[in-house]
Specification:
Elements: H1 24-37, E1 41-45, E2 50-54, E3 76-77, E4 88-92, H2 107-115, E5 119-123, H3 129-135, E6 141-145, H4 150-157, H5 163-174, E7 179-185, H6 195-205, E8 209-214, H7 231-244, E9 249-252, H8 259-271, E10 276-278, H9 282-290, E11 294-298
Parallel strand pairs: 1-10, 1-11, 2-3, 2-4, 4-5, 5-6, 6-7, 7-8, 8-9, 9-10
Helix pairs in contact: 1-7, 3-5, 7-8, 8-9
Length: 315
Amino acid sequence: MSGCPRAGTIEEGSPPWAAPPALAEVLAKAWAVRQAHFPPVLGVDRPSLTVPVSVTGTGCALDCAHCGRHYLRSMRPAVAVPVPGVRSYLVSGGCDSRGRVPLTAHRELLARLRETGAHLNLHTGLVGEVEAEQLAVYGQVVSLDWVTDEATVKEVYGLEAGAADYEAAYRALASHLPVVPHLCIGLKGGEMEGEWEALERLSRLRPQAVVFIVFIPTPGTRYASRAAPPVAQVVEFLAQARLQLPEAELSLGCMRPRGEYRRRLDPLAVAAGINRIVLPAPEAIEEARARGLVLSASEECCALALVDHEGEGRR
């Protein structure tokens, strides 16, 4: 897909969320696909009842270029859970030197959280068949980072891994649990490199749901001085994702730049056929209503939209 046309720029004087003229055609096609395959509903996720937990505290063997252990500091340590009144947990943590979050070493914790009746969204990393089978006892859904470009994996994570490793992890996990791939747009310091291939490979796997997130320049990381990818490029990618994954539920996840960037991106993501948005900008709500969409609110992590009321994962 490297031959896809570059997205245009938004014309001066247009509303902040106006679509660049160069994107009008692909957005129209994407919206038509959404209308053909989904009811007129936009999921609005405000995950106040999902608590993120790190099984490694602030520790991580990788010190990734885009994270630098920064986001682990906002998660609860394992000793601080369970939390009364919550419905679910995102169980994550730092990776080991092979790109795995060591969840299987914390099965006592997983069991304790499940005993409260909470749903578990497991962030696993590059696990194999044995670990996937062990985790299936506890989890309702898996969030799996989806990167297939070896150069990006090397630069960002410092791992010697590529498409075959991520596909193997996906298949191992999917044989036991619903898996929601998370694709970060602009992961390589804001550059679009490898995302089109990653999308193509996803389309062959036909996942039921995909979460798209966007690179955030984060202070204290090796990518702190980089810029987020241009909004028009992100919107073009989301529209193409809608076309290539016509039956998959597509979510715009919580990890994306805030402020003006979000106010421009979110309504255009609605126009591109996204099904769910986490903490949407007001402009996205306005766009959704203008397009006749009904809002459906959730107070949990967007990946847990795949979990039914009995707590059993749907595939």
